[in-house]
Amino acid sequence: MQREFWLERWDRQEIGFHQQEINPYLQEFWGDLHLSPGCEVFVPLCGKSRDMIWLKDHGHKVLGIELSELAVETFFRENGHAPARRQQGKFAVSEAGGMRLFCGDFFDLGAEDLKGVRAVYDRAALIALPPELRERYVRHSFDILPAEAPILLITLEYPGMQMPGPPFSVSADEVKRLYGAHADIRLLKRVNALGENPKLAERGLSQLHENVFLIRLR
Q1: Which among 10, 127, 149 is positioned nearest to 66, based on CA atoms?
Q2: pLDDT of residue 140 exceeding 90
Q3: Regarding beta strands 99-103 and 61-66, do their DSSP bridges make them parallel or antiparallel, or are they unpaired?
Q4: Domains (ranges, CATH) in the chain?
Q5: Which of 35, 46, 173, 203 has CB 3.0 to 4.6 Å from 64, enough for a Cys bridge?
C-alpha cells in the first residue's frame, strides 16, 4: 500500500478497519506477556485505536506510530486530551496522558526511538500490508525492537483469492515463515470469525479465521 492510499482513506473517513470496542483478544491474552507495571508498549500503525486507552488504563505507557496526522489528532480529541506537540527527527510527536504518538513512516523508525519499549501490540499493522511490505515490516521490526520485547499479534486468515486486501490474509504458516528464524511463536487462539464480520462476508468471503499469536524474539 502506498502512503497516499492510507492518507486518502483517512481523509475520506473510509476507516472500516477502526474498531469502536476494545479488542477481546487483547483483554484475554495480554496477561500472558507478564509485563511489569509502567512499561512501554509499542503499537504500530495505531490509527485512533481505543486499544491504546485500554493499555494506558492498565498501567502502561503507550508509544504509537501512525502515518495520518488526522488519525493522531482525532485520537487525542476523541479521548479528551490536548497533547503537547514537538518535532523529533522525521516525526511530529504528540504526547498526553502517558501516550506518545509519532506521525510518520514506520520504516523511518530507528532502534533509538524504541529503546524503552518492552512489548508490542500488533492488531492492524501486519494485516494492513501486502506481501512485499510484510517481509520488509518484519525485518525492520527485528532491527529496531529491543530483543526482550514480546509481540501480541492478531491476524486474519481467509482464501486470498476471494477478497483483495486490505485487510490482507496472513496465514499461520506465513507468520511462522516471517518470524520463525528469529523468534519463538505460540498460537494462542484460532477463531472462526466470519459471523462476527458481516462487512467482510459481503465482500465475498466464505471463510474467515482470526489467529492470535504470542511471539518472543530470540
Answers
A1: 10
A2: yes
A3: parallel
A4: 3-12+22-217 (3.40.50.150)
A5: 46
